[in-house]
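Reply to dn_fold:

You asked what the input looked like. This is it:
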Amino acid sequence: MAKYLISFPSAAMVVPEGEWGAVRRDSHAVIDEAKTAGVYVFGGGIDNYVPPILVSADGAVAMGGYPWAPTLDGGFTVLELPSRDEAIAWAARIAKACRCAQELRVFGFDPQS
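and this is what came back:
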């Protein structure tokens, strides 16, 4: 079975005021279903209130991420599933719950990690 990364950038979450509670409830319900189904690996979101730091190979530390890369933000879920079609179906459920499109990628899990 492969692991799939289902994610969205923060800017994709355009939710009308007053609907955030329903989004939270619905998205947590889908994650609970994934846990019950035994396909949930992990998930979460980038904390936008804590700025990134860049740690170089020599140990030097600088504020901010890679200056040339787009900002990494938003939420993500990793599920372990037997097929891409099942991953698409779960991504669709998450998209419906979050009220925004989800990007689906195969997650290159390193079993030695």
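The mean pLDDT is 95.
Hope that clears it up.
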